[in-house]
Amino acid sequence: MSQRPLGAQISHMLKDRGVEVIFGIPGVHNQEMYRGIEEAGLTHVLARHEQGAGFMADGYARATGKVGVCYVITGPGLCNIMTPMGQAYSDSVPMLVITSCLDDVVATRGQLHQMLDQEGAAATVCDWSQTARTATQAYALIDRALAEFDAGRKRPKHITVPISLLEAQAPVAPAMAAQLALPRMADDHGIAAMLAKAKRPLFIFGGGCASAEAEAREVMARSGAAALTTYAGRGVLAPETPLNFGSFLARPSSAAVIGKADLVIAVGTELAEVDLWRDTLGHNAPLVRVDIDPEVLADRYRADIAVLGDAKGVLDAVLAEIPTSPVTDWTASEVTDARARWLAEIDAERPNLLPVIKALQGALPNDCRVYSDMTQFAYAAKEVWDMPHAGHWHHPYGFGTLGYALPAAVGGKIGLGDKPVVAIAGDYGFQYSLQELMVAVELELTLAIIIWDNGKLGEIEDSMVRAQIAPNAVIQKNPDFLKLGQAYGAATAAPKSLVELQSVVKTALATKGPTLIHVTAGIC
Is 158 within 8 Å of 130 (Cβ atoms)? Predict the structure, then answer.
C-alpha cells in the first residue's frame, strides 16, 4: 500500500529497519500507532504500566543489543515512562520512545492528557526529544535515531507525533539509508608502545567494553597488565584472568592499587560517582582515556591522552601494534591479597549476604542473565560475583531507580528466548512494578524472580545510622508474597535453606511460566 495513516506507516518502517518487538499500552490518543502493528508483523507486549513498558524495552535492549521501542500516549503515558528513559540515558541503553501529542497546546486548554511542554519534559531524560510535524520529519527522526544508535553512544531518543498527523494518510517511508559504521581505528596515540614500556600498566574496563570482550581479554594476555572493572564492566574479563582485581573499583583502597600503576588506561567508562564513590581515581601515572563520548573525555580527570572511539576499535588497533610476552612487575599475590581484603570488608559490612550470593551463583548456568534492583543483595553481589561474560548482569547503575528488575527481566526474557533469566529485587522495590508479573504469567515466560526480604529499607536505615539520624520510615509492612504471586498465577516457593534455594532456582529455570521465590535473611 502506497498510502496508509502515518501511525501504521511508522510500524511498517520500524519492521523494515529490523525492529521485531514493541512494548507499550494503547490508548485513545495513540491508537493509530497500533493500526499497523499486526499487518507489519511486529510483536506487541502489553505492559501493565508505562514505566513497566520502558523497563521492558531497556531489558530487551541490554540483552539483545537491539533497539527497545515503546509506544505510549500523550501526557501521563510519557510522564510514566520518563523514569525508564532516565535510566536508559545514564546506562547507555538504545531505547526509542514514540508518543502521540496534542495538535495544539497554545490556543486550547483543558484537553485530555494535556501538558505544557511534552517535548521539553522528555528532553530532560533522553539524548534528544523532537516533535514531527510532517510524515517526512517522522521518518527522518526515526532514521536519525537508528543511525545514532549504530555509530554513537547509545542513549534513548524521544519522538512525539501530533494525533491528527498519525491519523492522516502518508506515503510509505523511504528506503533505509546506508548503515553507518564506526571508522577503522589506528593506534595513533602510541598506546601499544606505552604498554610495552610500562612496568605496572593497569586497565580499567567499563560497560562500554561489553562489545569488546575478546579484545579486552587478548590485550590483557599480551600486555601483562593488571585490571579493575566497573560494575557495568563485569564479565569483560574472565574470572580466571591473571592479574584481574575484579569489580572492586568502588572499594576505597582500590585507589592505593591504582596509585601503584605507572600507566592507567580507562576504556569505556565515565569513572562516574557510581563507579568510584570517591572524589579521586587515585592515579599518579599518566592517564589514557578511551571513550565514544567526547563529553567523557573532557571531564574533570583531564586525561593525559584522550582517544575518541569505541572500545572494540581502539583495542583492536592496539593489538595490531602490541608486542607479545611482556614482563611487568605486577604479581599474582598482590591481586589475591587485595581481593581477599575487599571480600572481608564486604562480609563485615553486609553480614550473612555472601553465603546466599555464593549459593545462588552456584545454582545458575553460565549463560544465565541476571536483572537486579536497588537492593542490598545486589549491592554486595555486584562486587563479589564474577561474571563469565560481559552483559550478563543488568542493574540500574546510574539513575538508580527502584522497580527495575522484574519488568527489565521480562523484556530480557522476551529477547533471549530459551536462555535462562533471573530477576533479583528487594521486598520494597519489587512492589514498585509487581503488576508486570502478570505479563510474565500471560506470556508464560520461564523466569525465576527472587525477592530478598529483610522487611525494611535496609540500605537507607544503615545510611541514617552512619549519619547519626534516628532511622525513620524505613520499616514497612509487607504483603504475603507467596499469596500475591499465586493471585497473579505464578508458581511460588519459600526455600528455608541454601541447599533448598539452589534446588528451587534450578526448578524455576526449568518450569514453564514465572516462579516467585521468597527469600529472607533467616535462610542463612
Answer: yes
Residue 13 C-alpha cell reads as: 518502517
Compute the half-sphere exposure of residue 237: CA atoms within 13 Å on the CB side of its CA.
26
Q: In sequence order, what are the residues at sequence separation of 6 or more whose Cβ sits closer than 8 angstroms to the Cβ of residue 418? A: none
- Domain span(s) for CATH 3.40.50.1220 in the chain: 191-336
Residue 81's Cβ-count burial label (10 Å; 0-12, 13-18, 19+) is buried
Alpha-carbon span 273 to 250, nearest angstrom: 9
Place of cell 530532560: 124
Local confidence band at 446 (pLDDT 50, 70, 90 cut-offs): very high
**Phi/psi of residue 497, each to 5°?**
-145, 165
Please name the fold of domain 350-523. Rossmann fold (3.40.50)
Residues of the chain with CATH 3.40.50.970: 3-170, 350-523
Strand 95-101: give its sheet, edge to edge. 43-46, 21-24, 68-72, 95-101, 157-162, 128-131
User: Dihedral of the CA atoms 136, 140, 141, 144 (nearest 10)?
Assistant: 180
Half-sphere exposure of residue 209: CA atoms within 13 angstroms, side-chain side: 33
Taking the C-alpha atoms of residue 340 and residue 432, their distance in angstroms, rounded to an integer, is 36
- Predicted model pTM: 0.95
Instruction: Name the residue type at position 249.
Output: L
Whether residue 1 has pLDDT greater than 70: no
pLDDT of residue 183 exceeding 90? no
Q: Which helix (H) or strand (E) holds 266?
A: strand 263-267
Question: 537491539: which residue's cell?
Answer: 66
> What DSSP state is assigned to residue 323?
P
Query: What is the fold, at CATH topology level, of the domain defined by 191-336?
Result: Rossmann fold (3.40.50)
CA-angle at 353, arms to 352 and 356, nearest 5°:
105
Q: What is the chain's mean pLDDT, rounded?
A: 95
Position 177 scores a pLDDT of 79
**Three cell numbers written together for 182:** 564506526
Task: Please give the average per-residue pLDDT across 158-181, as a whole number.
Answer: 91
